[in-house]
């Protein structure tokens, strides 16, 4: 008998996180969704899954999500970490408080749920963790300074985690979206993309679904750009 697999989506109430939850459910995963807005609970109900209203900045909320997921489904096979938007300002004008907020939004949003979920994956001898990051990790953009700094840190964290738990068959990869349709569109940004269009949340979700699949079983510690060619760095 095949095992019914379970995907946990953090910050999955809207945008790319919600698209990932929908795609994973369509691929046969049971889904558990955390969001602060309540939209995640509604989406989970629609998908026949489990929804929790809470914050990815709260260890208690994340622990509640994990506990309820294990109670209902008995396992956690995939963890998708999405998130919100951090502070933006000229780099010398960013306060200490804003830097700390950026770390919460762009780095600890992964560290916290991984610390809670990964031990279960190690126990199961298998799991896939996919973090939604940004295409500008390789070419930092002053428009998004806190994102650029802390998601560079996330790339390092991902490599260390991947190397540490590869032998346990627990993988971690980052998806690096470029300009996606969940963001406000401008002609200037669109014109800078070789494909001359914004990407879609569904395209990001499809990449996440691949990284969660058995077909990606030999991929870990990687940063996968999904940006229409906007970043040219190797």
From TrEMBL:
InterPro entries given for it? NAD(P)-bd_dom_sf, SDR, SDR_fam
Q: Which SUPFAM superfamilies match?
A: NAD(P)-binding Rossmann-fold domains (SSF51735)
A UniProt-annotated Pfam family: adh_short_C2
* Recorded superkingdom: Bacteria
Tell me its family. Answer: Belongs to the short-chain dehydrogenases/reductases (SDR) family.
PANTHER family associated with the record: 3-OXOACYL-(ACYL-CARRIER-PROTEIN) REDUCTASE, NADPH-DEPENDENT REDUCTASE BACG
| Protein name, entry field | SDR family oxidoreductase
């Amino acid at each position: 008998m095949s095992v019914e697999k379970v995907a946990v989506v953090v910050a999955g109430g809207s945008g790319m996180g919600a698209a990932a939850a929908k795609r994973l459910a369509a691929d046969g995963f049971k889904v558990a969704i955390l969001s602060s807005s309540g939209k995640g609970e509604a989406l989970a109900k629609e998908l026949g899954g489990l929804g929790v209203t809470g914050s990815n900045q709260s260890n208690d909320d994340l622990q509640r999500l994990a506990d309820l997921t294990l109670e209902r489904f008995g396992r956690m096979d995939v963890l998708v970490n999405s998130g919100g938007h951090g502070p933006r300002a000229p780099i010398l004008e960013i306060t200490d408080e804003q830097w700390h907020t950026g770390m919460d939004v762009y780095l600890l949003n992964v560290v916290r749920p991984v610390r809670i979920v990964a031990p279960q994956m190690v126990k199961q001898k298998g799991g896939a963790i996919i973090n939604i990051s940004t295409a500008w990790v390789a070419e930092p953009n002053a428009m998004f300074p806190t994102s650029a700094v802390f998601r560079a840190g996330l790339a390092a964290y991902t490599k260390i985690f991947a190397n540490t738990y590869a032998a346990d068959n627990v993988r971690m990869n980052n998806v690096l979206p470029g300009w996606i349709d969940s963001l406000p569109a401008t002609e200037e940004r669109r014109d800078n993309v070789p494909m001359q269009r914004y990407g879609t949340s569904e395209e990001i979700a499809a990449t996440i679904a691949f990284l969660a699949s058995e077909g990606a079983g030999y991929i870990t510690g990687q940063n996968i750009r999904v940006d229409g060619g906007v970043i040219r760095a190797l």
